[in-house]
Design goal:
Elements: E1 4-7, E2 14-17, E3 20-23, E4 26-29, H1 34-39, E5 48-55, E6 59-65, E7 72-78, E8 80-87, E9 98-104, E10 110-113, E11 117-123, E12 127-134, E13 143-145, H2 166-169
Antiparallel strand pairs: 1-2, 2-10, 3-4, 5-12, 6-11, 6-13, 7-10, 7-12, 8-9, 8-11
């Protein structure tokens, strides 16, 4: 079997289905191998790994970095999330469009979110352990984001009153972002 990479409705965002080998003892999964990803068309060099833990109802996002953007490869090792990527690239034919996927410890799916996309997720399980690889180092001064509840995006988040960071409550809708706050 080979790594399956499925372009989403915005083709730059890709659902990745790794091989999982299971038996009565449990399972084995290779979470990342550069050669396999390159062969599948994702030739990004990842330089930082991150791990976050969140409780049910937490919504993190929608975040991106500029001028030092990050490609991300995201997956869940415990629990389940509703994961969203929004195209915020000025001039893109899919600007303001988004894709979503359920990522969980049981489906083992990964999502490749390229630079130029805002990313966020909502926790569906009691708790989630969320892992992600980044192609650029996290830079607090480059943090950007758009409002999770932007009415123009109309993302059907599976929670009506999410647990949010103070920062995420103060983000602006995409239409209110200036051109220097968005990637090209």
């Amino acid at each position: 079997m080979a790594l399956q990479v499925i372009p989403q409705s915005i083709p730059e965002v890709k659902l990745v289905i790794p091989d999982v080998f299971g038996d009565t003892r449990g399972f084995f999964q290779e979470t990342f191998k550069a050669e396999s990803y390159r062969a599948a068309g994702i030739g990004v060099t990842f330089i930082q790994d991150n791990w976050s833990r969140s409780v049910k109802g937490t919504l993190r996002g929608l975040h991106y970095q500029l001028p030092n953007p990050q490609d991300k490869l995201v997956w869940v090792v415990k629990g389940e999330i509703y994961d969203v990527a929004v195209d915020v690239r000025l001039g893109s034919p899919t600007f303001g469009k988004w894709v979503a996927a359920i990522l969980s410890e049981t489906n083992h799916h990964h999502l490749f979110v390229p630079a130029g996309f805002a990313h966020g997720f909502c926790v569906l399980s009691d708790e989630v352990d969320f892992m992600y690889k980044c192609s650029a180092v996290y830079s607090p001064k480059d943090e950007k984001g758009i409002l999770w509840s932007d009415p123009d995006l109309a993302i059907p988040w599976p929670v009506s009153a999410p647990i949010l960071s103070k920062r995420d409550t103060m983000m602006k809708p995409l239409a209110a972002m200036s051109s220097d706050e968005l990637p090209r």
